[in-house]
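Input.
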Amino acid sequence: MEKVLQLLVEGESLNTRQMAEVLNYSEEEVDACLQELKKKNILLGWRPVFNPSAEMDEVVRAVIEVKIKPERGGGFDKLAERISRFDEVESCYLMSGGYDLQVVVKGKRLGQVAGFISERLATIEGVLSTATYFLLRAYKEQGYFLPGLGDDSEKPKISP
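Output.
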């Protein structure tokens, strides 16, 4: 099962037949592994990686640092799960450091994202404060360098 998982992560868009050939498995064995990964909640879904600047519809993204008050009997989880359920929220992470949650939000317009933060997110009981950072440009997305970065051969210089 680990080999199938590794191939999923590294193998781009292989179908089950191609995966079986690479791993020297039968298609049925690959299908069984995939079903087991889904059953164990390891494989949650399939997502292509898009270049944010080339999306069909323009999208505004923001990273929000959220400080919250942990709840008795639920800690941070209950409030984090509530925040995660909003359609605007792409990702939500519990963090260590100066804030508790990192929330990635997207919308069609800057005003829509700002309105979500000020009217819906910041007003939730238990949210103590928010700090918002709008994403201006992506250089690397989910491990992929995005087009337009210039010469790939240029490595960072090492100073003595």
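Residues 2-39 form one domain.
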